[in-house]
């Protein structure tokens, strides 16, 4: 837990969020600025800076995060038409919050994978 990390503070209930799924190790909540009809962020409760650091430190926790992302997709009704799971990692990817999070997005056609 970091006092200054936004998503650690959400995990600690210090900052409100619209939680849609929770396990012992993960939390999923709606993105404050949704980019699709469904846009949920899935985090580990434990602080890791990004997905690469997470999987290096704890493959089992990375599996928990992916399982939670799958559960969110099912609960949000995304599995029929499809959806994306995105891990922005580092500056070229525009990662803004340095606490690992999967974006689960769907609910409409999402367009090309990368905007140019
Ligand atoms: P990144 O660019 O790091 O991959 O994504 C960070 C995401 O966090 C963005 O989509 C942004 O809208 C979302 N976000 C930033 N601050 C908050 C917040 O306080 N609450 C919630 N629910 N989402 C946030
Ligand atoms: Zn954190």
How would you describe what is shown here?
By secondary structure, the chain is α+β, with helices and mostly antiparallel strands. Helices cover 26% and strands 22% of the residues. The protein has 3 helices and 5 strands; from the N terminus they run H-E-E-E-H-H-E-E. The protein has helices at 6-11, 51-57, 59-75; strands at residues 19-22, 26-30, 38-44, 83-86, 101-106. It has a 5-stranded antiparallel beta sheet, with helices on one face. Helix 2 packs across helix 3 (59-75). The longest helix is centred in the middle third of the chain and has 17 residues, at 59-75. The protein starts with 5 loop residues before the first helix and ends in a 10-residue tail after the last strand. The relative contact order is 0.21. It binds guanosine-5'-monophosphate and zinc ion (ZN). Residues 6, 17, 29-33, 41, 88, 94-97 line the site of guanosine-5'-monophosphate.
Summary tags:
116 residues, alpha+beta, five-stranded antiparallel sheet, 3 helices, binds guanosine-5'-monophosphate, binds zinc ion
Compact summary:
The protein has helices spanning 6-11, 51-57, 59-75; strands spanning 19-22, 26-30, 38-44, 83-86, 101-106.
């Amino acid at each position: 837990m970091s006092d200054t990390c936004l998503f650690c503070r959400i995990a600690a209930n210090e900052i409100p969020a619209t939680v849609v799924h929770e396990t012992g190790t993960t939390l999923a909540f709606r993105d404050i600025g949704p980019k699709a009809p469904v846009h949920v962020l899935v985090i580990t409760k434990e602080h890791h800076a990004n997905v690469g650091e997470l999987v290096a430190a704890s493959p089992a926790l990375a599996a928990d995060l992916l399982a939670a992302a799958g559960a969110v997709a099912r609960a949000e009704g995304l599995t029929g038409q499809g959806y994306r799971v995105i891990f922005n990692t580092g500056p070229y990817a525009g990662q803004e919050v340095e606490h690992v999070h999967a974006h689960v997005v769907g609910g409409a056609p999402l367009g090309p994978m990368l905007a140019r």
